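Researcher: Going back to the complex we discussed earlier. I've cleaned up the inputs and rechecked each line, so this should be the final set. Can you rerun the prediction on the complete assembly and write out the structure?
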Amino acid sequence: MIKAGIIGATGYAGGELVRLLTGHKNTEVIWYGSRSYIDKKYAEVYQNMFRIVEEKCLDDNMEELADQADVIFTATPQGFCASMMKEEILAKTKLIDLSADYRIKDVNVYEKWYGIEHKSPQFIKEAVYGLCEVNRDDIRKARLVANPGCYTTCSILTAYPLAKEGLIDMSTLIIDAKSGTSGAGRGAKVSNLYCEVNENIKAYGVAAHRHTPEIEEQLGYAAQEKVVLNFTPHLVPMNRGILVTEYASLKKRVTYEDVKAVYDKYYGKEYFIRFLEEGVYPETKWVEGSNYVDINVKLDPRTNRIIMMGAIDNLVKGAAGQAVQNMNLMFGLPESEGLKLVPMFP
Amino acid sequence: MIKAGIIGATGYAGGELVRLLTGHKNTEVIWYGSRSYIDKKYAEVYQNMFRIVEEKCLDDNMEELADQADVIFTATPQGFCASMMKEEILAKTKLIDLSADYRIKDVNVYEKWYGIEHKSPQFIKEAVYGLCEVNRDDIRKARLVANPGCYTTCSILTAYPLAKEGLIDMSTLIIDAKSGTSGAGRGAKVSNLYCEVNENIKAYGVAAHRHTPEIEEQLGYAAQEKVVLNFTPHLVPMNRGILVTEYASLKKRVTYEDVKAVYDKYYGKEYFIRFLEEGVYPETKWVEGSNYVDINVKLDPRTNRIIMMGAIDNLVKGAAGQAVQNMNLMFGLPESEGLKLVPMFP
Amino acid sequence: MIKAGIIGATGYAGGELVRLLTGHKNTEVIWYGSRSYIDKKYAEVYQNMFRIVEEKCLDDNMEELADQADVIFTATPQGFCASMMKEEILAKTKLIDLSADYRIKDVNVYEKWYGIEHKSPQFIKEAVYGLCEVNRDDIRKARLVANPGCYTTCSILTAYPLAKEGLIDMSTLIIDAKSGTSGAGRGAKVSNLYCEVNENIKAYGVAAHRHTPEIEEQLGYAAQEKVVLNFTPHLVPMNRGILVTEYASLKKRVTYEDVKAVYDKYYGKEYFIRFLEEGVYPETKWVEGSNYVDINVKLDPRTNRIIMMGAIDNLVKGAAGQAVQNMNLMFGLPESEGLKLVPMFP
Amino acid sequence: MIKAGIIGATGYAGGELVRLLTGHKNTEVIWYGSRSYIDKKYAEVYQNMFRIVEEKCLDDNMEELADQADVIFTATPQGFCASMMKEEILAKTKLIDLSADYRIKDVNVYEKWYGIEHKSPQFIKEAVYGLCEVNRDDIRKARLVANPGCYTTCSILTAYPLAKEGLIDMSTLIIDAKSGTSGAGRGAKVSNLYCEVNENIKAYGVAAHRHTPEIEEQLGYAAQEKVVLNFTPHLVPMNRGILVTEYASLKKRVTYEDVKAVYDKYYGKEYFIRFLEEGVYPETKWVEGSNYVDINVKLDPRTNRIIMMGAIDNLVKGAAGQAVQNMNLMFGLPESEGLKLVPMFP
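Model: Rerun complete. Updated structure for the full complex:
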């Protein structure tokens, strides 16, 4: 039984981790860390867990937790994990960080986009970017995994095979993303109130969202060139789900079958990536509650562009599900253990 | 491996049955019956099942299905199951009917409220009303189970212990119920369009809803008297969930603790019924996707009434989940097999 | 031109007042009071008012405002208006208080239910309860109007004619109410976040909601007896709208036509009250954005009860619209001036 | 008093026309045409109009209507208006067609994208494209106005000044659009059911949507070159609203102030177009129920692109509101008559 500790267990991503780990036959959650709710019963914070989780919330003492846990998940604000990290912790336990602290290799880029000083840059090199379908082998050996962002997971996986195979002109890549509101977290802000989000759609963080450099870095590795792109997130009145619509110019004439073959080459054996039938476009509802990524493309000969579309559940493949997938890899378990969740419809 | 056939597999309740049976380790779905989509791949009707269900939809030939299946689920319009039923079918297979055909013992009451002739009243007596927590022993021995309605499951279980123990005056019982829109089915009707339901709430079937006699009959058995009550359903802009708010006058002075003790007497060992902490009222979101029934009460000394509240997921405990729970009982499996679903939040 | 000042202009009710007064040909808003946003442009708080309202937010100095305004609207938390009130203010200006401070005639009842001390009980007697269709004549002469609560407006008007004519047994009256989320205000609370309200319904304030004594007092005047009842509010995932479903036993045998005649007697000439056609039940969407109250009833001979249903837009007839209607009466304008808003659908 | 007839009065756009014309002081609706509901009271189809509209629905006899009406609005399926059109009708009355029949000047393009034969191409040349802010003078003199599509109105107006002034490379223009569900009409289709749309977002009509050639034609006039672009609509779980996010490469180095000056040049005096403050991006909720178009842009020096954003209410500026604006122009009324609607929030 893997002993798992969660710091930040009462945010939405933390709550989803609890849901997934509760149903995972090889893990036991031994620490529900939540600075805001110390000593409160976890099930009083999330009543859906009544009679399922009996424990109380604990603090965020990562050192003490490292003594007890085989793996620590940090679902905490940017900067927290980096501020607590030391060799002693990694010597004792594995760590999967759901924040952005170790996702970006260039600490200057991190500090510029996030506007904070990185407190433990010495671990950035060691950290493995936990996009399972791309970095599987490195993840298996890692002590420290940087779990990818929600937008980035969806954005990267949707374009990755075409970037890797050089089919698209990376300088033309534009990513228009749409997210459910759980991505905004559980903080009490006026802009996230029901009446402000409901019956409304808006863009935000235009040409300035922090997931941009993460997408650029990873797609840059795939394309083996420096990538600069536009990424525009939008807030959609729904709880869960991310849909990305990506546009790029094709570098050569290809057919739908050619493109499908490229996706099959990279994803044909992937359990969690479903390349849909021709003409069927991803919808967030079809992956809700699951770890799937649904992808399809449409070629437009009129403009010589390809439109790539991808959908995930932001709290599962975009956060907690991918974290569990990383844990499975790190502990030598079957990669889909505890994650064969059938999407819920409606 | 239990071979299960579903007739009506492409309605919302049928789809939920597929979701639950797909995750059930002792069953295999061998028949996806859907008159509307014969020969179409099931996953084209419900894209969430892409790469999970490969089969095509079949017709609704119950006789042929009875030769192949160990259990048949009928998630079909009222009257269908009764019109197909014969001894030969029950001799070969078990049957769980999610329609109302065998729920009401008095065929005249059925025919009056449903406005159709019952085509096989000879099976009504044999049929067991599949409210698991109440009729567990009879269900274990049944060939034919009448799976309760969604509103009725929630309405009955919320008041059952108090009716049984004679604490409330049954002539004062009023049930005000609120349901998500999946309860209205997948039929293409203007009144169920997004723009008609969204940002709206309304009562319907006032003093005329078909679930009324079913609730009255079952609570009558509990109270051992004839029960006549008001039941008012409302349509709420959400996909899933039923909340009932029930009002009744108390027959004697009792405390919250007294009442809690009564609920504990009947439900204390029930896996799927959660009597909440004092002051915490049921919310549909806390049971979403799960087979739980959340219940609590509030006593009002000013009016000498008790307000009982209960919440379920209408597609799970209100339909497919309870059907699987019945199947587990009928086949001697652990009652919660395949149903330990953690509610999804948000 | 009536000079109107609003204190609490940046709450949802205050915002709706701005919307209505902006379209009212006899008024000019001269004061947008908002303690939280002093010196900020009003249109930066509510971007829908961009290029419509150019003014900045001011403080809540009621004395200074009284010098400038012909009428003051207070859309403020309970206790504020009472704490600021003095004869000097009422000597200079009319005041319409959207809070509960002057709604309840018995100051002890107010202090018990609201849990605060009333700071100016000497004005309670003078204050007129601003339920226009009931107290029209007194409102015309009033200096100080207590604008009714949202739930109470809908609850009272729906039952009023039957209470007045003695058709129903008031001791059996139960009010089950459902409200959109704007009724919870614009405060940043976790419980009002999009993800907490969406796809969810719950009861709250069960047997304890502050609107209860207000409903009891007013229906008591109508029935000429002391009324004690159950009132249960529910939170519905929609922005606007209140639906009440009220249950009571009939004191004598009546037909639908008899009951309709009673409603016609009281409401037949009312512009804002629509008694619907038989069999058509109120839906909140049909009154959205308007000052209408839609009402209908269903008689149930099986239980000898009548089910009364009413719907309003909680921000219009339940708050700002009724406040403007009161203002029209107080200033001798046509009662529907600025309020002939056609409900918006969908 | 202008006598107005509506054919297609019971669709969502038709319903909105009724709402707007009911509040318009110079018009009287004399014909509520609805093939599906002939002889049914209009207010039974749209209960929000109870006691506001007393008339019954009539047929779609355009010739008879032409004898009675000063202006006819056709809010009908593609092809209907073209099939009924003749000189005799235009000789007697003005016509504003909300369908696409006369929007596209090249009949071959129309027939290819719409897949139907145009039955009266002889009127295409005469028809004026009713984008009021662009074609105001021609509209004033027109007998036949082709009211623009919802997506097209928003897409064109958002980019128009930059296209006109040659600031953007038109070959790089990509339009990613998001629409509420009322745009899909009131037809009873499974894909528009509440449970299918709610908690979901998807792209549709990718590289194939019929509004594409309309946008290309109009922006081509502005840019004075042939324009071919990508347009991708998405379905959003909300009733009303369209948001477009448009991407294009800049042809020269410009500042935000430069761009703002260009928008001011074209829209500075427009009542219905609001160019927002820098850093404030359009949200559909801020224009809901109104005829406003909210626009802003963000320059991205990293990619040398400009991101243009625009928001409208699809049923108002995207359909009925613009139709009334056109009517006002055609009849010499103030352009904003009956359209000074304050957006409703929340």
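Model: Worth noting: Chain B touches chain D at residues 12, 181-182, 186, 188-190, 192-199, 237-239 (CB under 8 Å).
Researcher: Good, that matches what I expected from the previous run.
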